[in-house]
TrEMBL record:
Described purpose of this protein according to its UniProt entry: Catalyzes the formation of phosphoribosylamine from phosphoribosylpyrophosphate (PRPP) and glutamine.
Protein name: Amidophosphoribosyltransferase
Reaction catalysed by this enzyme: 5-phospho-beta-D-ribosylamine + L-glutamate + diphosphate = 5-phospho-alpha-D-ribose 1-diphosphate + L-glutamine + H2O
Pathway: Purine metabolism; IMP biosynthesis via de novo pathway; N(1)-(5-phospho-D-ribosyl)glycinamide from 5-phospho-alpha-D-ribose 1-diphosphate: step 1/2
Enzyme type, top EC level: transferase
EC id: 2.4.2.14
Entry keyword set: Glutamine amidotransferase, Glycosyltransferase, Magnesium, Metal-binding, Purine biosynthesis, Transferase
Enzyme active site: 2 (nucleophile)
Domain of life the protein comes from: Bacteria
Molecular function via GO: amidophosphoribosyltransferase activity; magnesium ion binding
UniProt KW Magnesium keyword: yes
Domain Glutamine amidotransferase type-2: residue ranges: 2-235
């Protein structure tokens, strides 16, 4: 789940891009990058593996000159995790274009071959984002003008929609011209627009989540619509157009379950409120299925589950206690690369306050259970802390299908729920009772009153919204990106770290 940001301002944007990326850090911890463009159309790039605070030092920031720029936070779902595949990517022709992408293309291989056949375009990485950029570049090539006009940009994005399959929320910068941003026709990945008035004129920001708009003191205007492209020229003039033939708003449901920050508004929905409603739905299910429960205390598994757990405890009428303390210097474990690191980090990240567990029947609440990495260790920690009984509630249904749209969950057999009943999962996790959210309840908890027609719920029900995913593709990504092949490719991938610029 990467994070993207783009700004067109009337003063230097390097610091604002940095600040915006810091509040998008929860969307990816592997790499970060910023590219700016000065008034002469010269690009300045700094990107590398690592967290935002580690990638950018003063010596980099002072060289990121210009009043427009884009930024990216990476959590790899394609290619390998060397810094050569960090973003933004860049092509010199036509015009000089940089791009940052959140999502995952599902026809990357076909497109890559096409780009060489038609354009002799050599792509040096295995990143799908570099393919997306080169398809955009190819389509912009058709405009014969020296400076592309908004209609040329919209025509090119319409072609991108026709050629690219999968999920993309992307921001791109054209040297000396401006910044554009567009979402795939299903709106699987999020993107919002912010603006603010200054003495020199209007400034705009586009970002994955509204938190970035908030902390940069812009006013949240709206979401970019599925299929829509917005373009802000270097003077701050705003243009937009729907570029898809048949847009259907169907955002990824996992954004609301886990990825997004609770303080974000996404497609008109408060993430925090939707998580609270998940807690309410789950409390009702517990009352139905375990009416004479003997739960003494509700305990969240920090961080993401806390909104749901607090509301669940309120609706269940059981006391809520923060029985696990999170190490604020350890990041999100689910998006860490490889199972070894995830396992090790869960124990470093969370520790139990024994007195909250000793002799009690505890209900642990998590937002989701995917590989079971967190739950397996947490349950043992609760028992070691003296819990009498350990129950576990998941605010999301069992994850049983791979994600192909930008969440690195390519292998079903890595999921604890794969080929297991709830009873069998409960045994595997070592809990005394396990309850999952039902999918209809999850959908209604999120979609209270918005114009979302449906969600991409593929990781729960195997219904892939883009309609082009078959068993062959799932087999292919499993082989390419299961934990073992990723480790091998990252070790043996003798990329000479050739950045694409
Ligand atoms: O079953 P698993 O494979 O462990 O995945 C699910 C867990 O991973 C995530 O936590 P994470 O530590 O990533 O982030 P958080 O601090 O935002 O909860 C999520 O919130 C669950 O706790
Ligand atoms: N999580 C994402 O959005 C990943 C973006 C892109 N597919 C990459 O691997 O770099
Ligand atoms: Mg968690």
């Amino acid at each position: 789940m990467c994070g993207i940001i783009g700004i067109v301002g009337h003063s230097e944007v390097n610091q604002a891009l940095y600040d915006g990326l810091t509040v998008l850090q929860h969307r990816g911890q592997d790499a970060a990058g910023i590219m700016t463009c000065d008034d002469d159309g010269k690009f300045f790039l700094r990107k590398d593996n690592g967290l935002v605070k580690d990638v950018f030092h003063t010596r980099h920031m002072i060289r990121l000159k210009g009043k427009m720029g884009i930024g990216h936070i990476r959590y790899p779902t394609a290619g390998c995790s060397t810094s050569a595949e960090s973003q933004p990517f860049y092509v010199n022709s036509p015009f000089g274009i940089a791009l940052a992408h959140n999502g995952n293309l599902t026809n990357t291989k076909v497109l890559k071959d096409e780009l060489f056949q038609t354009d002799r375009r050599h792509l040096n990485t295995d990143s799908d984002s570099e393919v997306l950029l080169n398809v955009l570049a190819h389509e912009l090539q058709n405009s014969s003008k020296l400076t592309p006009l908004p209609e040329d940009i919209f025509k090119a994005v319409a072609q991108v929609h026709r050629r690219c399959k999968g999920a993309y929320a992307a921001v791109a910068m054209i040297s000396g011209v401006g910044v554009m941003a567009f979402r795939d026709p299903y709106g699987i990945r999020p993107a919002v627009i912010g603006k603010r008035e200054t003495a020199q004129g209007t400034e705009y920001v586009v970002a994955s989540e509204s938190v970035a708009v908030d902390i940069l003191d812009y006013e949240l205007v709206r979401d970019i619509e599925p299929g829509e492209c917005v373009f802000i020229d270097r003077k701050g003039n705003f243009y937009s157009q729907q570029c898809a033939d048949n847009p259907i708003k169907s955002p990824c449901i996992f954004e609301y379950v886990y990825f997004a920050r609770p303080d974000s508004m996404m497609d008109g929905i408060s993430v925090h409120k939707s998580r609270m409603r998940m807690g309410t739905k789950l409390a009702h299910k517990i009352k139905r299925e375990f009416p004479d429960h003997d739960i003494d205390v509700v305990i969240p598994i920090p961080d993401t589950s806390r909104s749901a757990a607090l509301q669940l405890s309120y609706d269940l009428g059981v006391v809520y206690r923060e029985g696990f303390i999170k190490n604020r210097y350890i990041g999100r474990t689910f998006i860490m690369p490889g199972q070894t690191m995830r396992k090790k980090s869960v124990r470093q990240k969370l520790n139990a306050i024994d007195l909250e567990f000793r002799g009690k029947n505890v209900l642990l609440v998590d937002d989701s259970i995917v590989r079971g990495t967190t739950s397996q260790q947490i349950v043992q920690m609760a028992r070691d802390a003296g819990a009498n009984k350990v129950y576990l509630a998941s605010a999301a249904p069992p994850v049983r299908f791979p994600n192909v749209y930008g969440i690195d969950m390519p292998s079903a057999n890595e999921f604890v729920a794969h080929d297991r009943s709830v009873e069998e999962i409960s045994k595997e996790l070592g809990v005394d009772w396990l309850v999952y959210q039902d999918l209809p309840d999850l959908v209604s908890a999120i979609n209270k009153k918005s114009d979302v027609e449906r969600f991409d719920t593929s990781c729960f029900d195997g219904e892939y919204i883009t309609g082009d995913i078959d068993a062959n593709y799932l087999y292919y990504i499993d082989a390419m990106r299961n934990d073992l092949s990723k480790q091998t490719s990252d070790k043996s991938n003798a990329v000479i770290e050739l950045h694409n610029n």
